[in-house]
Amino acid sequence: MPVLVASDLDRTLIYSSAALALTMPDARAPRLLCVEVHESKPLSFMTETAAQLLTDLGDTALFMPTTTRTRKQYQRINLPGPPPKYAICANGGHLLVDGVSDLDWHRRVTARLAEECAPLAEVSEHLMTAADPVWVRKHRIAEDLFAYLVVERELLPEDWVKELAVWAENRGWTVSLQGRKIYAVPKPLTKSAAVYEVARRTGAELTLAAGDSLLDADLLLAADRGWRPGHGELADAGWAAPAISALPERGVLAGERILREFLRAARGLR
């Protein structure tokens, strides 16, 4: 396949019920397809139209899910279309090939993190001690690579994330607020590095990408063309770059629009 499509998932292609942004009258709301079930409950959705577009995209280009989710969290998702040959999990920490982590890639990533960043234990401890139990609901370590908090957004102090970002910056880490989650991620742990690797392996002639968060900025910059929805960290910051289109759509309809753009661009090469 000459076209590689590397797309973030949550709040880019798939949406929780809280993130759907169905602002139209109920009778005009799009039909939804559930693509993730967790603990016997529907968790993530896309429109039925988006599901068909993703199926068509899988027949046109090499579609590669590119997510900060752990492998276990990613494997809960049941996307329409052909099973992806490649997938990026843990923000680039794991490169899945036919569903199995490439161990050589993972070793290379962990060696670089050990050389360039403060240890995960130090960052995790700081998160535990600096965060207030009043607004923290969960503290998690993901794949022994990075850490995140699940918080009550309405109780989160306005400047706390900014202060954490300054602290992390001095230790080679970056901070991202996505929905109810605050991520602390080592700077070298990037989606773009894994995307470059897959592009090298596949000989992709064109790379397309989409994402909504700060952790997707490097992914978008690594692509020949990219799209971001009208919601999320990047939209809130007014983030822009050459070859990146800022879409007006918000919520689940943004996911549909992104897939239309992917398909149009992928077919344009043929």
Describe the protein.
- The protein has about 270 residues and is α/β, with parallel strands linked by helices.
- The chain is built from nine helices and 14 strands.
- The protein has helices at about 50-60, 70-75, 105-115, 120-130, 160-170, 190-200, 215-220, 235, 250-270, and strands spanning about 5, 30-40, 40-45, 60-65, 85-90, 95, 100, 135-140, 145-150, 175-180, 180-185, 205-210, 225-230, 245.
- Strands 4-1-12-13-14 form a five-stranded parallel beta sheet, sandwiched between helices.
- A hairpin with a 2-residue loop joins strand 10 and strand 11.
- Helix 1 runs parallel beside helix 9 (about 250-270).
- The chain is globular and about 50 Å long.
- The model has no long low-confidence stretch (mean pLDDT about 95).
Distance between the termini: 11 Å
Looking across the biggest beta sheet, what order are the strands in? 4-1-12-13-14
Mean pLDDT: 96
Task: Tally the helices.
Answer: 9
**Sheet having the most strands:** 5 strands, parallel
Structural class: alpha/beta
**Tally of strands:** 14
The Cα radius of gyration reads 18 Å
Sequence-ordered SSE layout with sheet pairings:
Blueprint: E1 3-7, E2 32-38, E3 41-47, H1 48-60, E4 62-65, H2 71-74, E5 86-89, E6 94-97, E7 100-101, H3 103-116, H4 120-130, E8 136-142, E9 146-151, H5 160-169, E10 173-178, E11 181-186, H6 191-202, E12 206-210, H7 217-222, E13 225-228, H8 233-236, E14 244-246, H9 252-268
Parallel strand pairs: 1-4, 1-12, 12-13, 13-14
Antiparallel strand pairs: 2-3, 5-6, 6-7, 8-9, 9-11, 10-11
Helix pairs in contact: 1-9
